[in-house]
Structure formats: structure tokens, C-alpha cells
């Protein structure tokens, strides 16, 4: 069937090519000799034949032509995929919301497949009444909807010693930004009755890593949530189904997934993920701990090494994202010449507290090489620093919290590369 | 129901749990946790010893347990296999170009070792070790880091007498106090002299994954 239907088209295409080669002299004679774009002149299958009906995909998936838009990992980075990370394809995304299936994953003991009927949240320690909640109980609390970014503290951590990975997916892809539906943690803790001596909270997951982090009670009562939906649907298993902790603006490791327990105490626990890991070693051998807040940061997502300029010189769109763990983004500057001169970019889309912001810079590219950089300024006045400024204080062995300015070199052909420039 | 007395009893027990006094909280949601439930999940240990269970274990038992359960990833002497974490050695390397961060060289508190080994190890068989076994493995890890002798036995009673050498070298987050350049007014024009020069390229390293054929990088 398809062979038959394509046969005449093939011959017509051959004829058309011939006529174009002949200067198009015959093109005006009739429809069969029309000159122009075959995508217009030849009716495609999707116009002449019926498509699939409803229910062909009960849970809808992206177009088959978008199959390359997937999370990817860096196999050499970790010992085993069960305790590893993959990266959000930032170069393929726009707006501020990350689709659920593209949110980067970081697990320490694989993805727990938790039966929601067996899920329990226990709150105990320095509370008046230790309580147990089912998922149904959780959904009887008043809910809120909030858009927050979640960034791994190790995002860009492979770039401390210099440009290493050729793709924004790998240099900056340990971040996602979704709308959470859940219950303010304050409301849940008030149900138990906090004792005045309670200054810290230990959050614990139900996965095979039993992930734990110590969180000061001020943060727990400020804007933390226990979330059960992301972008309107149930949390994905890899994001902590059926419920996770949301710790806005703070490093992603604290957003405990598959949450099972909250203990209130009078001191921090100093567990593995806040001592051996997620502490920042400095050149003098001392280390910073409790570096919870994510500093203001931005990156150009296109063009970038995975998203080169393919249209040649002329009208060109630069786009990227910016975020801050301390508030909103006030301004993003873009440089085309490696930081010599800066122009304010155009922010577009909603500006939410501790959320990704989207920026654009449209210009006429003259075809000469570009040294693209972006610089975020947040609502506290914090200006995203250069990588060298950070290295001058932190050296190159602190792993976490690299929010330095990224440079993409774009050559005359539009190909982009991760570089550092003087 | 009367045909299944056992089932009736189970249901009555379950109902009893459900009907336990509702929370005293303002919304009346949730139910009180029983002491046994709290004990079943409350496994965390703090540097001041809070949470440590009864038990004891020595270097000798620890060596055998370590060989059976840990060495496949962490190496016979804590030196690590592949990219699994190094557990021993590295003392004096924190200021080196390539620091080796181990229990002996970096971790501030021994309680973290006990807590983590119990909650998450062995990898893939979490919370399968007895308290005595966790004490023994912890003792052996101290031995591998030259912090105790081979006849050392660790217990809840002597736990706080062991201090890890790097404890004093941690300080609370001071980024905003020490990196004040982030509040400088940003330069907009003629910020650097000359033309940009590339000082390093990712392409030279060539470590970017090429994908699996399903979605390779352009």
C-alpha cells in the first residue's frame, strides 16, 4: 500500500527536479510541474490517510521524532547505575517547567517501588504526640501548589578543574523545575505539636539507602512541603512516589524521596550525606558543612554543544535558564564576547520564588565566532560569579555548589563547544 | 464472619488500630504511633551517642564480616574497587591536589559510620546486619585507618571515647561572609581587555558520552 502510494510521488519528484534544473521553464505549465517545496507540493501520508484513534496511547507519549529528547547519564562518573545520576536534556526544553519524564534522577539505592497502600509517614521525637499518617490522611490536609527548582549540589561539579563535558545536559542537567502539590510541613508538624526544644528535623526515606538529612526547624516551618503530585500527576517513582519532601531553594539531596519518617530533635545528626558527602573541601583542608542554599546561577541552553546553530548567520535566538535558592531572578545579562560586554537579556514567563526563570536574547548573528556567557542577578543582589572567582576562594576540590559563569564557544559553522576563556 | 474466627480476630485488631484515639492536633488527622512502631523505624545515631543500641564487636570479627560483605566493593583494605568509595587511608591528603577523603582522613564522627553501615549497607542488603555485626565492622574500619589496635572491641559503652581526627576541620557555611565579591556591582562594558582567548576546551578531554545509538549527541 505505502509502496504503491509512494511510487507516483517518486516519479513526480524526479520530474520536478529535472524541471528545476532546466531553469523552471516548464514549472508554470501545470500542477504536475509546480516549483517549490516538496513539503508543500506533495501531500504527506498524515494528510491523505487516517491516523490512530483515541486510546492508541492511554498515557500519551512525545512524537516519535522527539525520541532523542531523553535523560542521559555519564557512565564513568559513578560505580553503579543503582547509585548514580542522569541528566535533564536542558538543550531541548523551553519555558520553565520540566516534563516529569525528563526530570533528572539521582538515587543512592535504586528506585524504590513503594505501594501507596503500605506507605506511612511517621513523625516523632520532640513532639507532643508522635503520629502516623497514611497517604489518605495526607490528602485530607489543606493543599498548596508551588513551582520550585530542585538542583543537585553537585550540578556542574565535574567542571571545577576546567571545561570537561561537552553538553549543557551534562554540565548543568542536574536540575528540574516542576509544580508540586502537597501539604505545608508546618501544618503537619503542628498536628503533632512541636516541643520548644525541637530545633532540628531528620528526614528519612524508605528506599534501600534510607536517605537521611538534618534540616533546621526554621526551614521546616518556613516553606517546606510534603508533596504527592508533580505537574498535576502523582510523583514519578524515580522522584519519590508516593510522597517526597520539598525543601525550596536548598540542595536537592535534602528533598528526601519515598519519605517515611520525620524525627524532631535538639541537634543535627551529622549523617553520611552531610559529612562525608555534601560538604565542601577548601584548599586549606577545612571543609564547609551545611551549605544548604543553592546560589544564583544561569546557563545558556541554546545554542550549546548539543544544540548548535544550524541556520547560518542572520536572526538568531539565544535562550537559557536562571535560578536562585534565595529568591527570584531580578536580571540576566548575556555576553557574546566572553565577558567583555554585557547586555540585559529578556526574561519571559512567570517569575516564581525559588523557581527557574527563562531568558532570551534575540540578535542578528554576523557569522563570526561567539563566546557566549550568561550572568544571573537574584532578588538579594547576588551576582553569579566567574568560575575563576570561585576557584580563588574554594580551589578545585569542593565538588559541590559550582555556580560559576559558563562559556560556550560557537564557531563560524554554528558548532558550539564547552570552553573556558581568558 | 463467624465461619472465619481467625479472620474476625485479625479484622478486630486492625480496627482497633484504626480506632485508636485520633490525633490531638487541630485537624484530628493521623493516629498516635505505638512505641514498637517508633522503635522499628527509629534507627538513627548521633555523634553524642543518642540512638546507639546495645551491642559490641571487635576488630577480629569485623575483619571476617568485612571480607564477606564489604571487600567486594571497598577492597580488602578499604582502598576501593573501581569507583566505589575509598574507606581507609588518605590521612594528610586534604590539602593535596587529589585529596583522598576516607573515614580516617575526612569523616568527622564515628557515629556516622555506625549509622550508615546499619541503614544502607551492605549495598543491596540494607539493615540485614545485627547490632553486634555493625559494631564489629565499625571497629574494623577504625583498625583499617590505624585508629585502634587489632584487639580493640567497640561497644555502646566505649563508643564516645573514639574521636575521628578530622572533626575540628569542619565549619558552618560562610559563603556569603567570605565571598563578598558576589555583591559587587556587575560590569557591563569593556570589562576585560583584548580579544577572548580559549584557555581550555572540553573537546580535548573527550569524555562526553556519545549516547547509546537511540539518542546520540549531535
UniProtKB/TrEMBL annotation, chain A:
GO terms for biological process: sulfur compound metabolic process. Residues 1-27 form the signal peptide. Its cofactor is Mo-molybdopterin. Residues 108-269 form the Oxidoreductase molybdopterin-binding domain. GO terms for molecular function: heme binding; molybdenum ion binding; molybdopterin cofactor binding; sulfite oxidase activity. Residues 289-406 form the Moybdenum cofactor oxidoreductase dimerisation domain. Keywords: Metal-binding, Molybdenum, Oxidoreductase, Signal. PANTHER family: SULFITE OXIDASE, MITOCHONDRIAL, SULFITE REDUCTASE. NCBIfam families: sulfite_DH_soxC. This is Sulfane dehydrogenase subunit SoxC. It comes from Oceanicella actignis.
